Amino acid sequence: MPILQVLPNVILTRIVFMPPFEMRFAQLLVSALASSSLWLKNCATDCRRRHMMRREWPRLGLQTIPLIRRLGLVCVVAIAPSVSSAEGDVKPGRKVAITFDDLPYAGAIGQGEGALPPNEVVALNTRIQKVLKRYAAPAIGFVVEQSAEKMGAQSRPLLKLWTVDDFTLGNHSYSHADTNKIDLASIEDEIVRGEVSIRPLMYDAGRPLRFMRFPMNHTGDSVAKRSGIQAILERLGYISAASTIDTSDYVFERAYGVALVRKDGHCAERIRRGYIEYSSMQIDYYTKLSQEVLGYAPPEIALLHLNRINADSMEDILKLYVDRGFQFVSLEEAQKDQAYLGELGFISRFGPMWGYRWARERGIKVNGKLEPEPPQWLSDYVANEVGRCQ
């Protein structure tokens, strides 16, 4: 798009940490490059990313940022139809909360075959948090107490990392029991025993323990059980944690783990890239679903698991949201939206995302067959001893 067509639409020019001589050079650079709508898109995206990373600049030092990237801090954001993300139009103002299930690790912990030793579990958590901090993304980790017990002496220091900065903890039950298969007394016992580690930690941090997420998102398969669960949550002071975006990371994690065991680096990377591609499709599918059902774009809530593929892909996952114009917010802020207020009378033995629940509550028909499925080759790779990845 020629610069003369862009200028009338310019709505913002932001200059951050730019010395005068660089400012003038940057203005010339903008004039030279602005004919490219792709550059404008990348510039706008870079501005958002750097805005979120600015808390890291004092630590990194501007001298570590090449001049050309510092000049990228001067961004012209245009409201032109051609300036959009590759995945869809960038819509500033959208919000997303990042949540992780199955802390401290969504897998076997210990020294047995296929298990991760506690020190490696700590490393996974630390790597994920490092990326979240770089993107200024608040996050909540839902803890399975039985898994925390397997961490031994490293459990408390690890979980404590989730009670500082923009991180917090939530309850994910004691043993990851399926509420469909146990009675109300057992459900309450799972919740109370699930607090053993996290409630003292949250108390010490001066933070309330607000959220409970049920395993598999099973929130009641009958009217009586759904009402009973709601009463238990209210009595114990919990809010049921919602989720609106599911990327089936556990499916990719299973294949990823097999590739790592086989020392199949080629397939491990192919699986990881496939996970990013699928996550991109799922984000678009679920955000569209929420918009169509509610008539507006609510804060989204991404459901992830604390696993290896997320530790190795966290930067790419967060970038998918940044490129779509999302702002990262806490789960608490997200669930202040009207869509999440009040009791959701959804009764099912399944645990779908909230978009489907909202649709049923409102009598809106949704064709779930349109939701993308994880690629079949993942299952084929796991099933075959000498598997092939696409």
Report on the structure:
- It is a single chain.
- This protein has 390 residues and is an alpha/beta fold.
- It has 2 domains: 3-78, no CATH class; 94-370, Glycoside hydrolase/deacetylase (TIM Barrel).
- It is 47% helix and 12% strand.
- It has 17 helices and 10 strands.
- The chain has helices at residues 3-6, 20-33, 37-53, 57-60, 67-71, 118-134, 145-149, 155-160, 184-193, 198-204, 223-236, 249-261, 265-294, 308-323, 331-334, 354-361, 376-383; strands at residues 10-14, 75-78, 94-103, 139-143, 167-171, 211-212, 239-240, 245-246, 300-305, 326-329.
- Strand 3, helix 6 (118-134) and strand 4 form a beta-alpha-beta unit.
- Helix 9 (184-193) runs parallel beside helix 11, helix 12 packs antiparallel against helix 13 and helix 12 runs parallel beside helix 17.
- The longest helix is centred in the C-terminal third of the chain and has 30 residues, at 265-294.
- 38% of the residues are buried.
- Mean pLDDT is 82; it is low at 1-88.
Structure summarized in a few sentences:
The chain is an alpha/beta fold and 390 residues long.
- The CATH homologous superfamily name of the largest domain equals Glycoside hydrolase/deacetylase
State the end-to-end CA separation. 38 Å
Q: Roughly how much helix do the residues carry, as a percent range?
A: 40-55%
CATH topology type of the largest domain: TIM Barrel
Order of helices and strands: HEHHHHEEHEHHEHHEHEEHHEHEHHH
Strand content: 5-15%
Major sheet: 6 strands, parallel
Second CATH tier, the architecture of the largest domain: Alpha-Beta Barrel
Mean of all residue-level pLDDT scores: 82
Poorly predicted sequence stretches spanning 5 or more consecutive residues: 1-88
Q: Helix- and strand-based class?
A: alpha/beta
**Tally of individual helices:** 17
Shape descriptor: globular
Number of strands: 10
Cα-atom Rg, whole angstroms?
23 Å
The CATH C-level name of the largest domain is Alpha Beta
How many domains make up the coordinates? Answer: 2
